[in-house]
Design goal:
It contains 5 helices and 5 strands. By secondary structure, the protein is α+β, with helices and mostly antiparallel strands.
Length: 208
Amino acid sequence: MAGEEKKKFDLQEWVDVVNGLDFENIGGWPMPVKLAATALVLIAVLTAGYFLNITTLNDELTRLKSEEVSLMQQYESKAFKAKNLDQYKEQLAEMQEQFGALLEQLPKDTEVPGLLEDITHTGEGSGLEISKIDLKPEIQQKFYAELPIEIVVSGDYHGFGNFVSGVAALPRIVTLHDFDIKAASGTGNSLLTMNITAETYRYVGTTE
């Protein structure tokens, strides 16, 4: 009973002491109060630092997890490429070989006259009469130049079919476009006239 009364008395005494503190004269505070205030400030600082540090660590952890996912994806991609490196090399060599073969089919400037002769011989061999075969100005593209050739031939449908097949079988790449077939001029003439544009291509980049 005496202990309880002393406890109540001590608590009341502390309340009175706190109420009587002069916050403009902290140096005049009783030593126990100074120690208690210092302890409270230290606890507050440590608590704030703890939660601030936890927040920073959580942000860092989130960043590291995201970076881990990205690095894992990069690793898997590189591992897949490394595993299939030999296959990629074989495909690359095959593509280079095919590309080189295509380049060989593109006529050089010095070969164009020979190509025109081949087209002329193909037309004559198909039983057609060559009225016109004229090389038009180049059309520049990004990696190659188009070389349009305007052709006018006279004959029948069978000869036209043989001519188209013969041009397609030439060793150089030649495509046929914009054909127009109509009756040849002249009374009683059973022949047909075909106007058609052939296009070949010249590589304008480096072979490397």
